[in-house]
Amino acid sequence: MSDGAGPSTPSRKRSRWDIDEENDQLEQPQPQPVKRRSKTKSTKTSPAPEQAQHPAATHTELQRTSTVHKRPPHSVFVPPRTLHPPLMPSRSVYCYERLNSIEEGSYGVVFRARDKVTGDIVALKKLKLDEEKNGFPITALREINSLMVCKHENVVGIREVVVGDTLTQVFIVMDFIEHDLKTLLTTMPAPFLQSEVKTLMLQLLSAVAHCHERWILHRDLKTSNLLMNNRGTIKVADFGLARRYGDPVGVGGLTQLVVTLWYRAPEILLGATKYSTAIDMWSVGCIFAELLLKEPLFLAKGEIELLSMIFKLLGPPTPHSWPEYQTLPLAKSISLPPPQLPQLRQKFPHITAAGVDLMSRLLTYDPEMRISAVDALKHPYFSESPLPKHPDLFSSFPSAAAGEKRRKPYESPSAPVRAADHKLLTDFDP
Amino acid sequence: MSTSLYPLASLPQIEKTPSREDGIPGDLEEDLRAYGCKLIHEAGILLKQKQVAVATAQILFQRFWFATSMKQFGIGDIGMGALYLASKLEECPVRIRDLVNVYDLLLQRKAHIRAQAVASSLASTSSSTPSWSELKYTPMSYFGNTFYDLKEAVVVAEMQILKRLGFNLTVVLPYNTLVNYLRVLGLTSREDVCTKAWGYLNDAPSVEARLQTPVYALYSVPTIVCAAILLTTRHLGIALPSAPENCWWELFDAEWEDLSSVCGWIMRLYRERSLEDHTRVMGMVAKKGVRQWLEEHRSVGGEVR
Ligand SMILES: Nc1ncnc2c1ncn2[C@@H]1O[C@H](COP(=O)(O)OP(=O)(O)O)[C@@H](O)[C@H]1O
Ligand SMILES: [Mg+2]
């Protein structure tokens, strides 16, 4: 089984991509012959290089051009053959030059890197594959597959998957995005404006709607998994917990070990093993609140504390607001506090009634009643004044991920710029 | 409705597959592909695996041979790896142990049948009566070397499939498209049409053979579905508009040349094969057999047939 390595590359002393290697000597791996390779992913935007590569992609292509009778253009559901990517092996991680490490997450390590050929700056996420007895981990497969299936303006773009010297080195190559929303929220001097929150929410909702339409649950939506570039565009990232729904679920149902505590929907907290798109929508509600508050909505230390915070903010569930409550596995072990009115209005004094309404539809107890991403996109909150701000008008921030230093808050030019933006906004027609 | 773009083999990959580069003749490669798919299908049945996982595995398996030569990997190992991987993709993972056992059983059974066939063909030339015996299957030990070797082979094969296909495992199965097209053509009420077209998608009126041709790695799903409908309607004598300026397949953006090519692939699966052809592929489930064959046929020189 050992001749699987293919045409073997001369052995390298040590991989620059070994995580534990810290000395940054200038020892470069041998330059690889630049493969003739039209990047698979680029075909969507520019079909031209693809066509150049297969001058006659099928035998019929030639005849097709000579056929005289006119055909209507291809339907969007039947893209021409030339738009399909060819079968391409993974490239080597040595096609990239490692820059700085961005963050060590729970699941992998993320680096900033440069494509040696195009010079593009990208993010590489190293997947944790060691100690695997069962081959390639299903979670990593889901992560890669979800990213490929859910391509969207507001989902972080996957470019390719590259491999290192050993079978345990696999990296997801993504577009590099300057910020994550968590860091941004904690370092930005002033909270987002209403108009900005609306733009970000619309982007988030359209990404989530897109994933749900493709039968993918994200299952870990939270601000640290939302990236934002300097052009005011949000990208949903980290599909490390994503999975398809609608599949018959195996013994034991879906795992409850999903979604970071603060963003976890009540049905999961109460032990439901059947859950669906609504769990992502609860998280979206928590993110909405966080964008307005500049801090997480439910800063709980444990599940019980989280539940009581939820009960306090929304009032405890009633048979009317959540008919299935009593049937959930953990409901019996929880004593509900006395009935009480929701506190959403008091918690968010600065948003309109429509804003509170959207929030309460996202933070709805009954998952059946909770608003869907598609419906939330149509909510009146987004069409009342102030209107969503055009992404181009967002001010930019120094990127911690790119290793840029933040200027001291008070030197920040962003405040006056913001005021100017506000003026622009009033006569801006989206 | 997902419109994600699944990969297809490029023209250079189609014209000269890696196996042909290595001197494996086209018809042998075709037979080995078909046989590998058949093993996947049979293993899927024994494992009670979902049909979608089996079909996905067969498509990944077919794609793999546009990226790699059969001299480098055996169709048995890659078949196991593809089924293992596809089962994860379809959220119905199988245990390596079960998979390895099923393949081992299948291969022992095939070897037995092959030995019997060879014996009886010898017997028919001489005058002695052939003696058929039952296969005595000896399950392997979980701690023996065979088990560990096979287990390792599955993991390696899975990783090779991933790497050589660039981790792009997008597979679109044809079944929804078939239902839609039949509906558009007003054929859903004809049960015989539905059954037969379904069979052609799986390449087979016979239950044995399914998805055994590389068409899913070569053509888009709408084209393949149209080909299945074409074969079906021709076979059942159903007339659909086929005049040049008004033919039904153009409704679905398919090209006549592609359709006839897909039909060709499917029908070629049913060409007569001799006993030698059959036993030949059975002996080449592992790459060792392929290499040995190449070795034996090299002396002939040039392109061997
Ligand atoms: N494409 C990217 N561009 C820039 N930074 C990224 C990118 N992807 C991830 N990061 C950074 O790395 C962190 C961890 O990545 P993530 O995919 O969330 O991994 P984990 O599963 O370990 O949480 C993110 O919070 C973000 O700060
Ligand atoms: Mg994360």
Write the layout of secondary structure elements.
The complex is a heterodimer of chains A (430) and B (305).
Chain A: H1 47-53, H2 59-66, E1 96-104, E2 108-115, E3 121-127, H3 138-149, E4 158-163, E5 170-175, E6 179-180, H4 181-187, H5 194-213, E7 216-217, E8 226-228, E9 234-236, E10 243-244, H6 266-269, H7 278-293, H8 303-314, H9 344-347, H10 353-362, H11 373-377, H12 414-426
Antiparallel strand pairs in A: 1-2, 2-3, 3-5, 4-5, 6-8, 7-10, 8-9
Helix pairs in contact in A: 5-7, 7-10
Chain B: H1 11-15, H2 18-21, H3 26-46, H4 51-64, H5 75-89, H6 96-125, H7 145-164, H8 175-184, H9 191-201, H10 215-218, H11 221-236, E1 242-243, E2 246-247, H12 256-268, H13 275-282, H14 287-298
Helix pairs in contact in B: 3-4, 3-5, 3-6, 4-5, 5-6, 5-7, 6-7, 6-13, 8-9, 8-11, 9-11, 11-12
The structure holds adenosine-5'-diphosphate and magnesium ion.
Family (chain A): Belongs to the protein kinase superfamily. CMGC Ser/Thr protein kinase family. CDC2/CDKX subfamily.
Region (Disordered) (chain A): 1-83, 389-430
Enzyme class (chain A): transferase
